Amino acid sequence: MVGTDMSAAERARLQYAHDLLLEAGPMPELPSQLEEPVKPPSADIIPYFPRRRYAAASVAAAALIAVAFGAGYLAGQSGGNGNGFDAVRKVRMHGTARAQNALASVQIGNRDDTGNWPMLIKLSSLHTLAAGAYYELWLTKNGKPTAPCGAFRADEGTTSVTLTVSYMLKDFDGWVVTEQDAGQQEPGPVLLTT
């Protein structure tokens, strides 16, 4: 330790540390048994949920799914649909080339005392329209949209819409759903048909 860049107290502290290192001597050699890392012993794995319990749980889950499916099917086959609407006729619709995956059904109720037909239309897989655009349900004559039944909006999931019309349904030969732009008066492109 040569130089004048440190104080006497700092020099004395460093000298003391140096003397202690010399007194301790060299570090011992590493024992040969520690030269290779030791692997931990393998543990016995005890399953938390034994295989036969997996099988039993799978069978129970399958049974619950079957019961739920059966209950849903029976509920769907009854005359009502669970919300007080009793259908006397059901018309199925399918998508056209413009909406190939779209499906719909029109449930028609009993004509009321004033001559109106209540309808419940359920639609699925229609795309969400731009602001101002909407869908329209029409009755057709000779396959052409003739009498509008009501406008609605839908999303890509399932949509249910209740409508009422006063037309004599026997005067028409089918149903279509069209896509209408805001302010459009004529029937737009047909997306669903019977």
How does this structure look, described?
The protein has 194 residues and is an alpha+beta fold. It has a domain at 89-193: Sandwich (Immunoglobulin-like), CATH 2.60.40. It has two helices and eight strands, in the order ααββββββββ. The mean pLDDT is 85.
Please give the structural blueprint.
Elements: H1 8-24, H2 51-77, E1 89-95, E2 103-108, E3 117-124, E4 134-141, E5 144-152, E6 158-165, E7 174-180, E8 190-193
Antiparallel strand pairs: 1-2, 1-8, 2-3, 3-6, 4-5, 4-7, 7-8
How many separate helices?
2
The geometry reads as elongated
Using DSSP, what is the number of strands? 8
Gyration radius, in Å:
40 Å
Question: What are the key terms here?
Answer:
single chain, 194 residues, alpha+beta, Immunoglobulin-like, eight-stranded antiparallel β-sheet, 2 helices
What does this entry show, briefly?
The protein is an alpha+beta fold. 23% of the residues lie in helices and 29% in strands.
